[in-house]
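Ticket #268: bound-state structure for nicotinamide-adenine-dinucleotide.
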Amino acid sequence: MTVRVAVVGAAGRMGATVCRAVLDARDLELVAAIDISKDGRPLDYAGGFPDSALVISGELESAVRAHADVLVDFTVAEAAVKTLRFGAANGIHVVCGTTGIETADFVSEFEPADRPNAIICPNFAISAVLMTRLAEIAAPYFENAEIIELHHDQKRDAPSGTALESARRIAEVRRRSGAGDFGADPTERVVLPGARGARAEANVFVHSVRLRGLVAHQEIIFGALGQSLTIRQDSYDRTSFMPGVLLAIDRVASTPGLTVGLDRLLGA
Ligand code: NAD
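RESOLUTION: The complex was predicted; output attached.
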């Protein structure tokens, strides 16, 4: 059966990449391209979509008019919240990759017993899923942990959703294993404010780097007496996220309620 897909944020970097992936996928049909910034312009306004006659719409309602089965959102946090609520209210499944949203707010909106469902993933790259999983294995055995996330210079939120999720899961493992918080920060004088980054749960420190030329990268560094372990993940291109996005589109109708994280789909 062909799944009808509407992409919100279709004129953005990720949204356009998703539109291309959906158009190239068998069993998927791109039925609506939604973006407030290019309302009324052809999807092919800048080239790259000669095989689509879709016109970009600024309204979520165009997904209803196009009988979309799934809304895919790559926008900004405030817009993604609207997309999730719109999907829940209109019986359209939602796959959300936008970062910076409070996922717990949506548990009740996507009750397992009712259609529709939602999948929210702060990172759709398999290498990122494995990075976090490997960090969970390492977490109980070290004395300190610091996360450095590195992204392109247009990213709107900091730290990244992936960094927050990594810190949360490392802290959870520390709690469960009885290892407790990592060592307290010994810094007594911060000469330049922010030099030590942000302190997340369990004393995991998070640093955000923004540089032109980067896409999405992260290092998790664990330290112990006389040794360290660095787990690094790199997404060099936005196509790295597409297998995960397509998997979520494929699974969302059969995955009841709200699912957070690609690992839940992969069983990782
Ligand atoms: P971008 O700025 O290139 O694109 C965002 C698009 O959303 C823009 O075209 C903008 O006009 C549109 N938009 C904003 N508000 C809107 C609204 N109310 N309705 C419709 N469209 C609206 O950003 P990007 O680099 O494509 O990133 C988008 C999001 O995806 C960010 O939150 C980013 O962190 C996240 N991201 C997630 C993953 C992942 O794997 N989950 C990977 C990369 C980026």
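RESOLUTION NOTES: The mean pLDDT is 95.
TICKET STATUS: resolved
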